[in-house]
Amino acid sequence: QAKESGRHAARFFDPEMHAAVIKRVALEKDLRTGLQQSQLFLLYQAQVNNHGHIVGAEALVRWQHPQHGMVSPAEFIPLAEDSGLILPLGQWVLQAACKQLACWAQEPMYAHLTLAVNVSGRQLRQPDFVQQVLKTLENTGAPAKQLKLELTESLLLDNPQDAITKMVALKAHGVGFSLDDFGTGYSSLAYLRRLPLSQLKIDSSFVRDLVSEPRAVAIVRTIVTLADSLGLQVIAEGVETQEQRDSLARNGCHAYQGYLFSRPGTVEELYLCAPDTSAHIM
Ligand code: C2E
Ligand code: MG
Ligand code: MG
Ligand code: MG
């Protein structure tokens, strides 16, 4: 086989690339172990409405690697997707998130909170995805109405009809759907109309440029108008400054998520950033 590859052989034996492959294989093996040894955990980032009240959170997975310390999901999620580990990993995230939702449901003070969970394409494509989610809701006792699944545009374009069928089935049980990183992918408006979404999530790249770039404002306004006319809620992600928050509010945004309100943190830290709920744990 090496003989056949001819001029490609040099590229194949590129030492830098070789090192990267070795590192990747090692990290993949570590992730498999880490998943079994409870090295993964969830952090929660607050989602805040126009009154400054916390209405929910997004669950963000973290990996505490025994040697490398904290590994970013930006690094290990793509790895998990390529290797197929995203299936057990995604199931673990869903289970952990639903357990948290079930706890909140027991407390009148937190029962209104929603929890958003990121879902990868490979997860959604599993033939029994709907049954997996319903079973997890059932065995944790989490209320379906408080669960929101975050999908991306590219993921949905893969096989729209399959995605829509599964979304419709879960929506019938009360599960909500948010379109993550909205505006960065390719979405046809006709297609957007067919998706049973509950929310659009304005990508942080538009929020970042909001104060300096009139064009970013125009895009935000267009997304909000689109959402309003489709009856969807709009949340902005990556809100870091009061100026950004005010500009978003002036342009009709409904909810906000970002470092201005809270960094992703433990569930106790989430309560502290909710002025109307923090008294409870004092
Ligand atoms: P995402 O779903 O778009 O999540 C938002 C990311 O922006 C998070 O990065 C969050 O920590 C970060 N962020 C929040 N507020 C701010 C802000 O004000 N400024 C800035 N600069 N960043 C902010 P994180 O936690 O590193 O996650 C990165 C991505 O990894 C996520 O993007 C999501 O696509 C993926 N991910 C995270 N957890 C999961 C998971 O459980 N399952 C799957 N499939 N993907 C996940
Ligand atoms: Mg997300
Ligand atoms: Mg996002
Ligand atoms: Mg994003």
From TrEMBL:
Residues 24-278 form the EAL domain. It is found in: Cell membrane. This is EAL domain-containing protein. It comes from Giesbergeria sinuosa. The chain holds residues 675 to 956 of 956 of the full protein.
